[in-house]
Amino acid sequence: MARTFRVGLIGYRFMGKAHSNAWRQAPRFFNLKANVELHTICGRNAAGVQAARAQFGWQNSTKDWQEVVESPLIDIVDIGVPNHLHAEIAIAAARNGKHVLCEKPLALNVKQAEAMLAAAQKAKIVHMVCHNYRRIPALALAKKMIGEGALGKIFHFHARYAQDWLVDPEFPLNWRLQKEASGSGANGDINAHIIDLGRYLVGEFKEVCGLLHTFVTERPLADALAPQRGGARKMGRVTVDDAAVFIGRMENGVLANLEATRYASGRKNHIAIEINGSKGSLYFDFEDMNRLKFFNGDDPRDRQGFRDILVTERGGVQPYVGNWWPPGHLIGYEHTFVHTIADFVNACADGKPVAPTFEDGLKNQRVLAAIEESNQKGRWVKLH
Fold it and tell me: For residue range 26-57, what is the model confidence (pLDDT) as tens digits?
């Protein structure tokens, strides 16, 4: 009889919704090595977390995350709360012998990430960072093609992650704009994703030269959108970056160029990646996530050009999609979380590591820190 893993999810808003859906769907579409039980969902607002429990199908709800990590009834702790809470919760969960899945970025800083990894290794638990974009079928296929040598020697990795939700200066201050809660702005929030994809697809970063910038330094407090008496409004200081750009060299000689911004009007969640090599190139656009573009330099010269690979084939031909719909039927953002959960559950059942581990999270954190140091010192910074 297959083992049952009882899950405790901490966080119930955006990531709580995405993760809840994934925990529900993974056993229905993937042949998991263990059963899954949605045991407890946790959040600070009693009414909100109770509503989430009913909506998403959890058995219990609580306001106390310590109750979750200490419960003998919980086997897996899934962390989807603001960044400043990751380390304390993950370390406590590891000490209580729980397998841990944690949202990105892993921590506020390198020191916290090191402590999280040390606790996970000491407890011999399965640990994973939720960089869900690794499990977009098109990017999993890109990884396979690169590994097979389809691009030859890699020269360039170029990536851009662009959003526009902060273009309006009237958008209120929230935790993502406060360093004590988030650690950084666009750098840790979205740059972390394309840094992780660069490491996953191409290689480790050796040195970076970066620039961080904040376009709007003050924003209205959430409860002060309406004009106060006398016309004055309560404002709060933005203490993180709005945009992060950097160039880098990887250990294998690849040149990297990455940009992350929350000020790209018209871009809601745009991720574009291009990788150039001696034999060909790959291009991916998340706004067309079921398609991978491939230029093959070995094609006859009279018919060369980027071809479309539609990643919607069944039968194990392409990563993950065989578990879903007939050929040609598209999948979306939510499926990347289902793929993540499926791989994580199987790793827990096997007691084996599953990438990206906390070690990957620490390596990503070191790149983020090097970009900050480069911005402060105005020079190239080597990865430690």
Answer: 999 999 999 999 999 999 999 999 999 999 99
Q: Give the relative orientation of helices 137-147 and 192-201 as an angle to the nearest 10 degrees.
A: 40
| Cα separation, 36 vs 58, whole angstroms | 11
Q: Can you give the residue range of the structural domain that contains 54?
A: 3-133
Let me know if residue 383 belongs to a domain.
Answer: no
Contact assessment for residue 184 and residue 283, using Cβ atoms and an 8 Å cutoff:
no
CATH number at residue 176: 3.30.360.10
Q: Is 183 left (phi over 0), alpha (psi -120 to 50) or beta?
A: left
Whether the CB-CB separation of 126 and 348 falls below 8 Å is answered with yes
How far, in Å, CA of 19 to CA of 25, rounded? 10
Whether the full predicted model's pTM is greater than 0.85, yes or no, is yes
Q: Are residues 202 and 75 in the same domain?
A: no
Distance of CA 37 to the CA centre of its chain: 24
